[in-house]
Design goal:
By secondary structure, the protein is mainly α. Helix 5 crosses helix 6. The protein is 47% helix and 7% strand. The chain has 2 domains: 44 residues; 165 residues, no CATH class. The protein is built from 7 helices and 5 strands. Strand 1 and strand 2 form a beta hairpin.
């Protein structure tokens, strides 16, 4: 009786072990391989990160991950449309805007005194940079997104930057405005969300236009 019970248990363990091996092989090899193949053939661009090419065909980023367009000191580069602020941090815990390895927001409430002060300072800086009234500075120009990696800005923020970018690049404002329109996505189904301008694609397109002209 004891031997038959042990034998039954061993058979059950062996059956369970074989099932585990088969399922593991299916999930890790067959299923994963099938999804990878489908992704590469049917959705190649998205499966490979939706990359954007630069002037020489090199990858300059992903169209769905924001970037910072400032110099090493954090000063806005006038040739580029500026992204919204980012609260991401570096591995040392210090501010590192648009750090793709540390997606996060500031977690500060709207009534936080430090945040109120920073927003006021940002408004003044943006108004000065763009030559507009503080009242004309859009909210997304001075507030960070929850991810810290937002690739879009509002159409209002893009519009107040057109003049500066056109002047810095020696381009006609109408040509720059046309590019802004090209990289503007509208409300889903006509009523979901708000229009947004893909800042990464837009700046890459401006660089390509510059290379063509010069």
């Amino acid at each position: 009786m004891m031997k038959s019970t042990i034998a039954l248990q061993l058979r059950s363990l062996w059956a369970g072990f074989r099932a585990m091996i088969i399922i593991t092989a299916f999930v890790s090899l067959v299923y994963t391989g099938a999804l990878t193949a489908i992704g590469q053939f049917a959705f190649n661009e998205k499966a490979n990160g939706s990359m954007i090419e630069g002037n020489s065909g090199e990858a300059v980023g992903s169209k769905y991950i924001g970037q910072s367009f400032t110099d090493a000191r954090g000063v806005a580069l006038k040739r580029y449309f500026q992204s919204r602020p980012s609260a991401t941090l570096g591995s040392d815990g210090e501010s590192s805007p648009y750090n793709g390895a540390a997606s996060l927001g500031s977690n500060l409430g709207a009534s936080n005194a430090d945040l109120v002060k920073v927003i006021k300072e940002r408004k003044a800086a943006v108004a000065k940079l763009e030559g507009v009234s503080i009242d004309d500075v859009p909210a997304d120009a001075v507030t960070a997104s929850a991810s810290g990696l937002d690739y879009q800005i509002s159409t209002a923020y893009a519009q107040i930057q057109i003049r500066r970018v056109a002047e810095a690049r020696g381009l006609d404002t109408a040509a720059v405005r046309k590019l802004v329109d090209r990289y503007t996505t509208h409300r889903g189904l006509g009523f979901i969300g708000e229009p947004g301008v893909n800042i990464v694609e837009l700046n890459a397109a401006l660089d390509r236009a510059d290379a063509t002209v010069h």
